[in-house]
Amino acid sequence: GANGALLDGFTVSGAYSKDESRMHLLPSDIKKNDMEVGGGMRNFMVSPKVKNVTFKDNYSPKGGAVYNVQDSNVTQAHFENIEFTNNTAQMRGGAVSNDLGAMPVFIDCIFVGNKSEDKGGGLYNDFAASPILINALFEKNSAITAGAIGNDGGSSPLLLNVTIRDNNASA
């Protein structure tokens, strides 16, 4: 992604990124920007606008479909009318993983059937990443812990008119 770039009306499917497992990263590790994360899209210190897009059947160690890292005091990535379906993360964030103060906005988005082999089947936030979700649905996502949304490290997402149903955490 790039600042102000617009991705509108696409399907991102079958994207795959592979990296060695690095479960407990430090902010200094993330800032190196040397990880293969975000199967379908990686937004590292950029703020694209993504509209009318389907992310399905993507895979990554972290953020099966999308990975966001952003400075919290600048414009954030914006996702509107997005379907995140059947994406998988080896570690965290089956559909989306947000790190280091990222505060992306998700409006009219659905997270269905995504899977994390650790935490946050639909969405995972760490290091004070606090996205804003408006009119969203989390359904049939799964993870070892936090089947729908997982939060660590001071993250506190804002949820407005969000439905969370029929998700599964196996631990």
Describe the 3D structure.
This protein has 171 residues and is an all-beta fold. 3% of the residues lie in helices and 43% in strands. The protein is built from one helix and 20 strands. Strands 1, 2, 4, 5, 8, 9, 12, 13, 16 and 19 form a ten-stranded parallel beta sheet that branches. Strands 3-7-11-15-18 form a five-stranded parallel beta sheet, with no helix packed on it. Strands 6-10-14 form a three-stranded parallel beta sheet, with no helix packed on it. It is globular and about 40 Å long. The N and C termini lie far apart (35 Å).
Quickly describe the structure:
The protein has 171 residues and is mainly β. The protein contains one helix and 20 strands.
Runs in which pLDDT lies below 50 for 5 or more consecutive residues are none
- Based on secondary structure, the structural category is mainly beta
Termini separation (Å)? 35 Å
Shape: globular
Query: Count of DSSP E strands?
Result: 20
Please give the share of residues in helix. Answer: under 10%
Strand portion: 35-45%
Helix count, DSSP H or I runs of 4 or more residues: 1
Averaged pLDDT, please?
89
Radius of gyration: 14 Å
Order of helices and strands: EEHEEEEEEEEEEEEEEEEEE
The major beta sheet can be summarized as: 10 strands, parallel
